[in-house]
Amino acid sequence: MTNKKSKKVAIITGATGNIGYDIVSKLGEAGFITIGLDRTPPSIDHPVFETDLNLFINSPEIQNEFMEFCQPYCEQADEISLINNAAIQITGNLISLTIDEITRSLNVNAIAPFLLSQLLVNKYEEKLLTIINISSIHSRLTKVNFGAYAMSKASLSALTRSLSLEIGHKTRVCEIQPAAIDTDMLRAGLQDE
Question: Cβ contacts of residue 180 below 8 Å, gap of 6+?
């Protein structure tokens, strides 16, 4: 486990997934205290707050629990980074997807990053803050049956641009738009190909 007194803290959503696990590992090696946020039980030797982001966004109680969970680490830090990495990929023809499927996709992939950014900026505005949103090539170029994912990632990209304009003078806000990365989520989306 990393030292609780480190001056750099990184909060990573989707911390126990393929990409999230690697982000946590690399930042831990670089001297960051890493705090995970994931619905999957922790498989990493770092603090992880367990919650489903779809539930998190609608529960002030869970949000308060999360902020309390982070406080012992964040209050000592000079730098806090939020890496909005968690994502769900609901595939299917847009005409046949349900409102619940579209809503869950938007909640996890775009609304949760918005809310987490808002919570951290409001609580730790005196710190050096960085927000990194992991978007996707699907925000600009997509394919059949990936419409829900593309819509949610385009929303995340729009959020990044808007945050940059509104809080960029005091918070670093940036985005990564990767193409296909060999993860369990990618393979699930391509299982019929």
Answer: 137, 186
The two structure tokens encoding residue 4: 């609780």
Query: pTM to 2 decimals?
Result: 0.88
Distance of CA 9 to the CA centre of its chain: 15
Backbone angles phi, psi at 49, to 5 degrees: -90, 120
pLDDT digits (tens, 9 = 90+) for 12-34: 999 988 888 999 999 999 999 99
Query: Does residue 134 contact residue 19 with C-beta atoms inside 8 Å?
Result: yes
Rg of the chain over Cα atoms, rounded to whole angstroms, equals: 16
Residue-wise pLDDT for 93-125, tens only, equals: 999 999 999 999 999 999 999 999 999 999 998
From the list 10, 109, 136, 130, the residue with the least C-alpha distance to 53 is: 109
DSSP structural state of residue 79: E
Q: Position of tokens 């902020």?
A: 67
Which string of DSSP letters, residue by residue, matches 3-71? -TT-SEEEEEETTTSHHHHHHHHHHHHTT-EEEEEESSPP-SSS-EEE--HHHHTT-HHHHHHHHHHHH
